[in-house]
Specification:
mainly alpha, hpI Integrase, Chain A, 3 domains
Length: 336
């Protein structure tokens, strides 16, 4: 009996040992798992901090992008408003070109012995033979007028965009008009020195007139004649420019030459001035000019890629880049 009890006790002790060892093993495992979990939580906390910082950076970038988009949107809206305002602007009535007959009537109205009469006749004559703007009369000097008589051209300081100065050439009709007014100009040559201004007061030949004065003198004569015309043509100081461009086109039949002479950036601007130029011919000239610009632009780009461009080429490349638009017919260009 005692023997059996001892053996049973040994078995129980053995099982208890196994149970204790198992608990110790489980305790070690749980401790390891706990350590791993702690490390994992620390890693997650560090990662979470990085994500928060990254999120802040992305939010800042998003705010900057939204700000830029809002700026672009505002600029587009402002551009659309300006475009609509330009489309709906109050347009001046169409002005008629100056003709030789109307010019003769203007000269008759400006006849008289006074210096102001003489000055007004000179202004009318130069406006009709050069097509310059009325305010471009003011910088002219007597020496420039002498060149106009001798060489049939005059250097003009431009008042609007384009080259700072350019040459205005006499047309065939312009040469006749200058010859008819030779006495007036010879009188000016006697009165003034070559370096004095052409349009001045009678007292001071070295101070140019104000624009208001010369404009008033010219407009006074033009209103007087305009009211007497039976056809009620709308003639203004800009009519001289329209008439000159029309006459230059008739003499040269080269709209590109007229464009370059007048300093226009786009050919359609020039063609809009030309009287009696058909819509078909107008569009044909504009199309040819755009395609020429495109081909020249491509040539300059090719030169630049080959390292053959110069400062002059770079300037020309920039000019053609500004002139070109996205509406050129590429298929037609290949056959041009």
């Amino acid at each position: 009996m005692n023997k059996e009890n001892n053996q049973l006790l040994l078995e129980v002790e053995s099982k208890l040992d196994l149970l204790v060892k198992g608990q110790e093993s489980n305790s070690n495992k749980l401790e390891g798992i706990g350590n791993d979990l702690r490390k994992g939580f620390i890693g997650l906390a560090l990662r979470n901090e990085e994500l928060l910082k990254s999120n802040d950076q992305l939010k800042q970038q998003l705010d900057e992008v939204l700000k830029e988009l809002n700026t672009i949107k505002q600029e587009r809206e402002e551009k659309a408003v300006r475009k609509e305002a330009w489309t709906n602007r109050k347009r001046l009535p169409k002005r008629d070109p100056m003709t030789r007959d109307i010019y003769k009537e203007l000269i008759k109205a400006a006849e008289g012995p006074t210096y102001i009469n003489l000055r007004t006749r000179m202004a009318l004559c130069i406006l009709v033979v050069t097509g310059i703007r009325i305010n471009e009369l003011l910088p002219l000097k007597v020496s420039q007028l002498k060149i106009l008589f001798k060489e049939n051209w005059i250097a003009i300081d431009r008042s609007k965009r384009g080259p700072s100065n350019y040459k205005a050439f006499l047309t065939k009709e312009g040469k006749k008009i200058m010859h008819d007014r030779q006495k007036d100009f010879q009188l000016i040559f006697l009165m003034k020195e070559p370096d004095s201004y052409l349009f001045t007061s009678e007292a001071n030949h070295y101070k140019s007139l104000d624009r208001v004065v010369i404009t008033r003198d010219v407009n006074k004569v033009m209103r007087e004649v305009s009211n007497q015309l039976p056809s009620k043509l709308n003639i203004t100081s800009h009519s001289f420019r329209i008439g000159y461009i029309t006459q230059l086109w008739k003499d040269s039949k080269d709209i590109e030459f007229v464009k370059q002479t007048m300093g226009h950036r786009n050919l359609d601007t020039t063609s809009a001035y030309v009287n009696k130029l058909s819509d078909q011919e107008r569009q044909k000239r504009i199309f040819m000019n755009k395609n020429y610009n495109r081909k020249r632009h491509l040539e300059l780009l090719k030169k630049r890629s080959m390292g053959m461009h110069s400062k002059e080429n770079s300037s020309e490349l920039l000019e053609y880049s500004c002139m070109l638009d996205s509406n050129v017919d590429w298929e037609a260009l290949e056959n041009y």
